[in-house]
Amino acid sequence: MSAITKTDVVVLGAGAAGMMCAIEAGQRGRSVVVIDHAKAPGEKIRISGGGRCNFTNLHCTPKNFISNNPHFAISALKSFTQHDFIDRVKTRGIAFHEKTLGQLFCDGSAREIIAMLTSDMREAGARLELATDITKVTQVDGGFETRTSAGTWQSRSLVVATGGKSIPKMGATGLGYELARQFGHDVTETRAGLVPFTWASNMHESWGSLSGVALDVHASCNGTAFDEAMLFTHRGLSGPAMLQVSSYWREGDTVTIDLAPGLDLASHIKAGRTTRPKASVWTVLGDVLTKRLAQQLGSEADTTPPRLADLSNSAIEEIVAGIRNFGIVPGGTEGYRTAEVTLGGVDTNQLNQKTMESRLVPGLHFIGEVMDVTGHLGGHNFQWAWSSGAAAGRSV
Ligand code: FDA
Asked: Which DSSP state fits 7?
C-alpha cells in the first residue's frame, strides 16, 4: 500500500478554477496539492479564444450568467472582479486588447496566461501532480482521502474543480458530478451550451449550401436576445450569435433571427422598385443580405412576383417581416463534442455563495464549470473560474 501524504488542501483539476484556488490558498500558507489526469495544466485555456484566450470581459456582471439560482454568483464575482484579474495580467506584463464588446484577449498567446498561473502556483508553494488518475475519494476522520495512481493524500479540505463535460477529447469527464452525488449533492440537468446548431434534416441540403455566409444578426430564443455575428456552415448555424442563443435553446424551440437589424429594408426595396423595376426583390435584397442568402430566401418564397415593379407595399411589408422574424427550428446542436461549456451542474442551493463550500459536507468545495453557473460567450466563463476559484482559495 502506498504511503499517505497529509496536506491542508487537495484540488481536483488543474484548469482555470483549480489553479486560481491553489494560488489563493497557497498564498495564505496552506499546503496545497493539485491533481489532474492531463499531462499539462490549463489545456482549455491553451485552446481558448483561438489560442489567444478571451480571459475576461470588461462588462462582466451577474447578468451574464445562467443558473437555476441566479443570485448565487453575485458575491464571488464582487469579491474577485474582472479588474482584479486584469491587474494580475498587467503586473505580469502580458499584453492584451479588447476585441469587441468588452472581450479581452492576449495579444500573444493563451500560454502566457497558463505560465502566469503556474508560476503564481509555484511561488505560493502549491504542488502540481499531473498525469495522475483519481481512483477513489472518501470522507475520513477530519477530512478527505484522495487515492490516485501516484499515491494517496489526506486533506482537511477538498476542492472539486474538474470542469464540465464539453470536449471529452481534451480530458473532460463527469467526475465532478459523480463526486457531488457521492457526497449527497444534487446535480441539475446538464446539457451542451455555447454550441453550434445543426440543420433539421429537411433544411440540410438547401441551407447547408450557404456555408461560409456570415452576417450580423439580432437573434433570440426563449426571451433572451443577442446582437452578434452569425455564420452558415454545412452542418448548421454557428458564430457568436448562435452560440449565445444555444444556451437558451431546448429541443423543438424556434430561434428567431432578424437578418438585417437596424436596416430600413422597406425603403431599400421601395427605392429599388423605382431604380431597378425589372429586378426581383431578392436581387435587390442581395445588396444587404448577401447574394447567396437572398437567393435562398427567394427560393423558399416561391410566390413572390418576379418583377419588383409588380410588388405591392403590403407584399413588401410581408417580405420585410419575414426577414426580421426569420424563424428556424434547429435539428439539434453539435453537442459536447464542440460545446464551449456545460450548462447545469452541481446545484448551488447546497453551496455557500461566499466560499463555495458544501452546506452538507464541511470542507468540501465545488468551483468553476462543474457548478450550475454558466457564463455567456465573451470571457465570462473564465471570469467565473477566477472568481469562484478565488472565493474557495480564500476559505479553505
Ligand atoms: P476546466 O475544464 O478548465 O478544468 C478542469 C480540469 O479537470 C482539466 O484540467 C481536466 O483535465 C481535469 N479533469 C477532468 N476530469 C478529471 C478526472 N477524472 N481526473 C483528473 N482530472 C480531471 N471561456 C472563456 O471565458 N473565454 C474563452 O475564450 C473560452 N474559450 C473556450 C474555447 C473552447 C474550445 C472551450 C471548450 C471552452 C472555452 N471557454 C472559454 C470555456 C472555458 O474554457 C471553461 O469555462 C473553463 O475552462 C472552466 O474552467 P474549470 O477550471 O472549471 O474547468
From this structure: E
In angstroms, the CA 9 to CA 283 distance is 65
Give the residues surrounding ligand 1 with Cβ less than 6 Å away: 13-18, 36-38, 43-44, 47-49, 53-54, 134, 161-163, 166-167, 171-173, 175, 340-341, 368-369, 379-382, 385
Identify whether residues 163 and 208 lie together within a single domain: no
Lowest pLDDT segment from 19-28, 301-310, 367-376: 301-310
State how far Cα 10 lies from the chain centre: 26
For atom 48 of ligand 1, which residue has the closest CA? Answer: 369
Q: N- to C-terminal Cα distance for the chain?
A: 28
Same-domain status, 29 and 167 = yes
All cell numbers assigned to 161: 474543480
**The total number of structural domains that make up the chain:** 2
Do residue 56 and residue 157 come from a single domain?
Answer: yes
Determine the residue of 12, 33, 35, 44 to mutate for testing ligand 1's pocket, defined as the one with the most ligand atoms within 8 A of the Cβ atom: 44
153 Cα to the center of ligand 1, angstroms: 24
pTM equals 0.97
Q: How far, in Å, from the CA of 21 to the mean position of ligand 1?
A: 14
Residues 178 and 34 in one domain: yes
Confidence tier at 1 by pLDDT (50, 70, 90)? very low
Give the residue numbers spanning the domain of 248. Answer: 196-333
Asked if 136 and 270 sit in the same domain, the reply is: no
Using one digit for the tens of pLDDT, what is the confidence trace for 280-311? 999 999 999 999 999 999 998 867 777 999 99
Beta bridge partners of 100: none
Instruction: Write phi, then psi, for 105 (nearest 5 degrees).
Output: -125, 150
Could you tell me which of 37, 34, 27, 28 has the C-alpha nearest to residue 7? 34
* Mutational pocket test of ligand 1: of 24, 48, 149, the residue with most ligand atoms within 8 Å of the beta carbon: 48
Residues 318 and 347 placed together within one structural domain of the fold? no
Same-domain status, 379 and 310 = no
- Rounded to two decimals, the ipTM of the complex is 0.99
Which domain CATH number covers 326?
2.40.30.10
pLDDT in tens, 52-98: 999 999 999 999 999 999 999 999 999 999 999 999 999 999 999 99
CA 23 to centroid of ligand 1, rounded, Å: 17
Pair 345, 370 in one domain: yes
